[in-house]
Amino acid sequence: MNTYNFDGVDLDWEYPQADDRGGQEGDKVNYVTFAKELRSALGNRGISLTLPTSFWYLQHIDVKGLQDSVDWFNFMAYDCE
Description:
Layout: E1 8-11, H1 27-42, E2 46-52, H2 55-58, H3 63-66, E3 72-76
Parallel strand pairs: 1-2, 2-3
GO molecular function: chitin binding; endochitinase activity
Family: Belongs to the glycosyl hydrolase 18 family.
Catalytic activity: Random endo-hydrolysis of N-acetyl-beta-D-glucosaminide (1->4)-beta-linkages in chitin and chitodextrins
């Protein structure tokens, strides 16, 4: 982070606990734990997290549990004309 003067990180896990993506049962809880540990390690550096717009994948992400560790949520939305 210091070497390249980064001001934060973006987490984009596609997709925790989703069985069609190799997810595992504990992914939902582990994502929150990871975000808390990352917040502690990064201090005041920014953390953003990318979320799917599809409920099929979003249901496996504990957004409420993540919100205290994340500064910004981004939603994956595409205009595919």
